[in-house]
């Protein structure tokens, strides 16, 4: 691999590692809008506050211990919601007495803002059936194993904060303020007092945390999966989404037009094989992540990924299994090879953006990949303009030379159109031989 190639790959790796880990920082304190006195006055005992990692949620609290050992927690929970939704919006906060923070087993307070702006706040017991799609109805305190008092809800038009307040009394036998499992959520539809299923973005899936109410520090049991998702995204963006297109550009524009290079084939193979290896590693990691996600899945994203891996593997088999130049069906194989290459690049770009959308809440990924696509498109456009400019100039030069030789009985031979050459019609996500690319037959530079 040449030094310039290594520098390009290193630059892309550094870019994505910087983006991926930029968000792994301690959560900042709450926003001024959330701490506005018009809100906190309804729960003036709030002494601590933090921004939660997902959904733009913010959480304020204070607590004290009763003489019988029970824990009294005053909570203030809010989310800045989009006010253009015509359906009901609901927000939820709850605690889970089990050994790790998760949705199943959570005792939740859910506030629903109806489409007519009326508001409901109730207690709910989140069970395994709930996660599988069964109806979620209000539950009495006796079913929750805790007490909830002074439940209130408000919506501030100016800041778009939807907020719930409550006093929660937890039995110390099941809850520990140093390791309190709490869960939060946002949904965008409800049927009266029944919140309907929330979106399936990873932001919604990751809205759990074990928090220390004394320090405010928290961590999630699924943090390792989040790191693996980051690695999965980086591998696929670098492999499928960057190196494979670079290999196509090298094969298309370094064979003859616009600059002939004896290293084009080595560079082409380097980009294609490197991209395939990284992309396959990311694909395999994605399969594992999908298997580890017991209660949710991203099926269209998975189907596209299987399509990409399967047909890219078929393209790579052309390293050894492509027909010979003299075979009668070679031109039909070339047509299939190029069309499949175009289709793969299209599906790759679509699926990368689908993956970024699943990782909603990390906007830098989207803009970073858009920047990569702009760079690749700009390089392709410049090469294409240069190719056609060079071709037209050589064609004009050939015509002038022919006109200046009237005694030559032979007819001048036309310069072959580089874009009409059979082998250079599309991306070759495989190894290619020189027969795949155009030549300037009988051009002035090759006579």
TrEMBL record:
It is found in: Membrane. Residues 401-447 are annotated as: Disordered. Pfam families: DUF568 (PF04526). The chain crosses the membrane at residues 233-251, 263-286, 298-319, 339-356, 368-388. Its main location: membrane. Residues 1-24 form the signal peptide. Heme b binds at residues 232, 268, 301, 337. The keyword rRNA-binding does not apply. It comes from Quillaja saponaria (Soap bark tree). One of its GO terms (molecular function) is metal ion binding. Residues 408-419 have a biased composition (Basic and acidic residues). Keywords: Electron transport, Iron, Membrane, Metal-binding, Signal, Transmembrane, Transmembrane helix, Transport. GO terms for cellular component: membrane. This is Cytochrome b561 and DOMON domain-containing protein. SMART domains: B561. Gene3D superfamilies: 1.20.120.1770. Residues 194-392 form the Cytochrome b561 domain. PANTHER family: CYTOCHROME B561 AND DOMON DOMAIN-CONTAINING PROTEIN (PTHR23130:SF175). Residues 420-431 have a biased composition (Polar residues). It comes from the Eukaryota. Residues 55-187 form the DOMON domain.
């Amino acid at each position: 691999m040449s030094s310039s190639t290594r520098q390009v790959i290193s630059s892309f790796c550094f870019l994505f590692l910087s983006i991926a880990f930029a968000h792994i920082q301690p959560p900042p304190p709450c926003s001024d809008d959330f701490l506005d006195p018009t809100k906190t006055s309804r729960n003036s005992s709030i002494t601590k506050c933090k921004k939660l990692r997902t959904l733009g949620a913010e959480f304020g609290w204070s607590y004290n211990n009763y003489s019988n050992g029970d824990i009294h927690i005053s909570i203030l929970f809010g989310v800045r919601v989009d006010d253009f939704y015509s359906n009901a919006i609901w927000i939820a906060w709850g605690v889970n007495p089990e050994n790790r923070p998760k949705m199943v087993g959570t005792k939740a307070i859910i506030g629903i803002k109806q489409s007519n702006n009326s508001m409901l706040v109730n207690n709910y017991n989140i069970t395994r059936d709930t996660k599988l799609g069964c109806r979620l109805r209000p539950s009495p305190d006796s079913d929750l194993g805790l007490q909830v008092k002074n439940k209130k809800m408000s919506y501030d038009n100016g800041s778009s904060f939807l907020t719930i307040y409550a006093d929660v009394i937890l039995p110390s036998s099941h809850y520990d303020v140093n390791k309190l499992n709490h869960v939060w959520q946002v949904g965008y539809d409800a049927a009266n007092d029944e919140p309907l299923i929330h979106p399936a973005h990873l932001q919604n899936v990751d809205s759990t945390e074990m928090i220390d109410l004394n320090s405010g520090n928290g961590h999630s049991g699924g943090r390792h999966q989040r790191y693996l998702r980051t690695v999965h995204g980086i591998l696929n963006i670098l492999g499928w989404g960057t190196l494979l297109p670079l290999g196509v550009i090298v094969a298309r524009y370094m064979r003859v037009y616009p600059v002939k290079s004896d290293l084009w084939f080595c560079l082409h193979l380097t980009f294609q094989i490197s991209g395939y290896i990284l992309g396959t590693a990311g694909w395999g990691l994605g399969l594992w992540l999908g298997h580890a996600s017991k209660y949710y899945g991203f099926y269209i994203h998975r189907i596209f990924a299987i399509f990409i891996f399967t047909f890219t593997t078929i393209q790579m088999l052309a390293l050894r299994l492509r027909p010979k130049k003299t075979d009668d069906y070679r031109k039909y194989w070339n047509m299939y090879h190029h069309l499949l290459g175009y289709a793969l690049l299209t599906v790759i770009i679509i699926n990368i953006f689908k993956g970024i959308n699943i990782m909603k809440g990390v906007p830098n990924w989207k803009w970073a990949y858009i920047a990569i696509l702009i760079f690749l498109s700009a390089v392709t456009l410049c090469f294409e303009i240069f190719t056609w400019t060079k071709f037209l100039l050589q064609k004009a030069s050939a015509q002038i030379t022919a006109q200046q030789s009237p005694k030559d009985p032979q007819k001048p031979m036309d310069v072959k159109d580089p874009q009409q050459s059979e082998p250079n019609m599309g991306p070759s996500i495989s190894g290619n031989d020189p027969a795949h690319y155009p030549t300037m037959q009988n051009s002035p530079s090759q006579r």
